[in-house]
């Protein structure tokens, strides 16, 4: 099957997959353009990983069809395999092999010279751990090695399944830099995550998933803007009393004072900021727009659960 | 081919760094050979020692030739202190004390502590006395008895132990490596990762197989090397090179058993337990550690359906009984046929991952 869309790295049309009583994927359709950084976002059990596995060609969908570069990934398609790189949720390493040996092994599985192994180690910042057995690497280092194994053959399309889960904040940020570089090389990157901030920061577009369905697809900023969520402006309590604020700003502004902060929620922030500026009360001012969290809350009617 | 070599190398390195694996597949069976070889070295022929207390005419009158003949089964030592001699018999250092009373009667003191030794020493001394009585008549004996062992005169325990223990070693490493590799690769998602790499399934199956076969050949070389040391004294007879195809087909057969065990097991520990539960009882029931000649009939019947029994028996045939291709071929065929059946079953049960 070829699609009219020459630009598409991935198309999925009405994918469904059921495991016993659980409908893991329930009619997922999406398109990922070449060079795009695309995120599948949702809580655990939303169907992200199963969707990813269908796209990678690891599972056959019960219904619907997927294509990568216009070709079907299922059944196992040897023409596609050299073009895609996959990082699985659990790091798939050979036991007791060092970081360098793992990479050299994967390189030769893809028919790439072992010299690439050193380059990739340097690329993911693991040169000094070349002789360390994979089991002894830290969580962040193991994820980096796993990503290096996925990239060793220079694939056009990279699948990353929850690459930052279980990492400390510093390691997550380091990994984000690496992922941005990979995408900047011109590779298409598809990532699943249950971190909303991660999707917001990294992805060109996200598909918000829950219960096996895609609820919404689009650039994170557009999804948030579309939500038309109120801007929340807060100043320390005591700068302005709640009654004064209500009197000055009228009914369009929702005013809450919890004793620590005075929070003013409004869709028209200009008059509020003007008022605070005129009174010289801009110390400790915070302005927060909507986030993907709000989008998820809005779409599902409940808090994002982890 | 490149993928196959790369996978094989990775597996070999991974195995070589696993001390537990090295111990159980290479050292452990070898330790058994070294140990059993020493334990059974003297052979199973009973040898008794008797203390002669004071003059005993039947012993004193023996010719040097008779003495040498008797020495093969009975050692005579001299200890003229009766109470000291009795103490040695009582604590089992010697099997009997023989004295001649004033009336010319022969009196043998023995300990009932070990029934076999007691019976042996009584029989031996009785034979000596009967011989002396017969000689005293000055006439040739009316009846004589000669005995002959059915095995080759040179058969030693090492010639039984080497094929038995080698068979057990091959069975252990074959079963364990297949079961553990399958479960570990599935659990660590290596199978899944390989499925996403441009690697043929043939390479994925062939690499662990080749590694196990190489290990089996190394085990064979080490075993035969140790057993043929002068100290252990294994003499290879006839077409002993047939042990190589036997070892290879046995290894393939036990890998297929391990594959089946690995299809059911969910964790490495479970795989290890299942493999041990299969191999160890099979080794006992197949007579890998000791001959089944004295085992109950049902054990001997069970042994007939054990692939390990046939592997060990055929190896014994070609290694130490001087038999040839005729003895090895049916076993090779049987082992490979069983492997084909078990592989077919495993293929039906095969899953790429636990999900």
Automatic annotation (TrEMBL), chain A:
Belongs to the ABC transporter superfamily. Drug exporter-1 (DrugE1) (TC 3.A.1.105) family. GO terms for cellular component: plasma membrane. This is ABC-type xenobiotic transporter. CDD domains: ABC_DR_subfamily_A (cd03230). Its EC number is 7.6.2.2. Gene3D superfamilies: P-loop containing nucleotide triphosphate hydrolases (3.40.50.300). GO terms for molecular function: ABC-type xenobiotic transporter activity; ATP binding; ATP hydrolysis activity. It is found in: Cell membrane. Keywords: Antibiotic resistance, ATP-binding, Cell membrane, Membrane, Nucleotide-binding, Translocase, Transport. The keyword ATP-binding applies. GO terms for biological process: response to antibiotic. Coiled coil: none annotated. It is a peripheral membrane protein. It comes from Streptacidiphilus jiangxiensis. Residues 10-236 form the ABC transporter domain. It comes from the Bacteria. Pfam families: ABC_tran (PF00005). Its main location: membrane.
From TrEMBL, chain B:
InterPro entries: ABC-2_transporter, ABC2_TM, ABC2_TM_bact-type. It comes from the Bacteria. Keywords: Membrane, Transmembrane, Transmembrane helix. Residues 118-353 form the ABC transmembrane type-2 domain. It is found in: Membrane. GO terms for cellular component: membrane. Its main location: membrane. It is a multi-pass membrane protein. The chain crosses the membrane at residues 21-40, 165-185, 197-228, 240-262, 274-292, 327-350. GO terms for molecular function: ABC-type transporter activity. PANTHER family: DOXORUBICIN RESISTANCE ABC TRANSPORTER PERMEASE PROTEIN DRRC-RELATED, TRANSPORT PERMEASE PROTEIN. This is ABC-2 type transport system permease protein. It comes from Streptacidiphilus jiangxiensis.
């Amino acid at each position: 099957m070829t699609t009219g869309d020459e630009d598409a790295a991935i198309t999925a049309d009405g994918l469904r997959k059921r495991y016993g009583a659980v409908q893991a994927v329930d009619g997922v359709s999406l398109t990922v353009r070449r060079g795009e950084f695309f995120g599948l976002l949702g809580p655990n059990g939303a169907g992200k990983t199963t969707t990813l596995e269908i796209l990678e060609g690891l599972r056959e969908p019960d219904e619907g069809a997927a294509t990568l570069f216009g070709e079907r990934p299922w059944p196992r398609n040897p023409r596609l395999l050299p073009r895609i790189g996959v990082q699985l949720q659990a790091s798939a390493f050979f036991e007791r092999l060092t970081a360098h040996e793992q990479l050299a092994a994967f390189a030769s599985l893809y028919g790439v010279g072992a010299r690439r192994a050193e380059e990739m180690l340097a690329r993911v910042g693991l040169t000094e751990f070349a002789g360390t057995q994979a089991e002894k690497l830290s969580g962040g280092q193991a994820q980096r090695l796993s990503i290096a194994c996925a990239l060793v053959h220079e694939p056009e399309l990279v699948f990353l399944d929850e690459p930052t889960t279980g990492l400390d904040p510093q390691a997550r940020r380091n990994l984000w830099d690496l992922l941005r570089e990979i995408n900047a090389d011109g590779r298409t990157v598809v990532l699943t995550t249950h971190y909303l901030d991660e999707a917001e920061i990294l992805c060109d577009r996200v598909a918000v998933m829950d219960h096996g369905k895609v609820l919404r697809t689009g650039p994170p900023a557009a999804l948030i803007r579309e939500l038309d969520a109120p801007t929340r402006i807060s100043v320390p309590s005591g700068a302005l009393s709640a009654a004064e604020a209500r009197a000055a700003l009228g009914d369009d502004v929702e005013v809450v004072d919890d004793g620590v902060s005075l929070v003013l929620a409004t869709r028209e922030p200009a008059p509020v900021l003007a008022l605070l500026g005129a009174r010289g009360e801009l110390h400790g001012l915070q302005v927060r727009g909507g986030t993907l969290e709000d989008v998820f809350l809005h779409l599902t009617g409940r808090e994002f659960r982890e | 081919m490149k993928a196959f070599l790369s996978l094989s190398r990775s597996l070999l390195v991974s195995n070589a760094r696993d001390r537990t694996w090295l111990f159980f597949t290479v050292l452990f069976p070898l330790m058994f050979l070294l140990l059993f070889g020493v334990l059974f070295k003297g052979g199973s022929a009973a040898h008794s020692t008797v203390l002669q207390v004071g003059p005993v005419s039947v012993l004193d009158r023996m010719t040097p030739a008779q003495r040498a003949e008797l020495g093969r089964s009975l050692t005579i030592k001299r200890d003229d202190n009766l109470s000291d001699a009795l103490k040695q018999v009582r604590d089992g250092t010697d099997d009997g004390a023989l004295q001649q009373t004033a009336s010319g009667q022969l009196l043998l003191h023995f300990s009932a502590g070990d029934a076999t030794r007691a019976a042996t020493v009584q029989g031996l001394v009785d034979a000596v006395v009967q011989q002396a009585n017969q000689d005293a008549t000055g006439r040739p004996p009316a009846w004589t008895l000669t005995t002959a062992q059915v095995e080759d005169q040179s058969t030693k325990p090492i010639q039984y132990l080497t094929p038995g223990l080698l068979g057990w070693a091959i069975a252990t490493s074959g079963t364990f490596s297949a079961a553990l590799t399958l479960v570990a690769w599935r659990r660590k998602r290596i199978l899944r990762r390989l499925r996403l790499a441009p690697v043929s399934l043939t390479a994925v199956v062939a690499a662990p197989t080749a590694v196990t076969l190489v290990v089996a050949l190394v085990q064979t070389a080490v075993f035969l090397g140790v057993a043929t040391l002068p100290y252990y004294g294994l003499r290879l007879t006839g077409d002993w090179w047939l042990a190589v195809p036997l070892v290879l087909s046995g290894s393939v057969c036990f890998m297929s058993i391990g594959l089946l065990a690995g299809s059911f097991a969910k964790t490495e520990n479970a795989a290890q337990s299942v493999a041990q539960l299969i191999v160890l009882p099979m080794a006992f029931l197949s007579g890998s550690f000791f001959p089944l000649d004295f085992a109950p009939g049902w054990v001997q019947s069970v042994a007939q359906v054990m692939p390990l029994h046939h592997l060990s028996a055929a190896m014994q045939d070609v290694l130490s009984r001087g038999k040839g291709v005729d003895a090895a071929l049916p076993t090779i065929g049987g082992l490979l046929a069983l492997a084909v059946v078990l592989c077919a079953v495993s293929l039906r049960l095969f899953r790429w991952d636990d999900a």
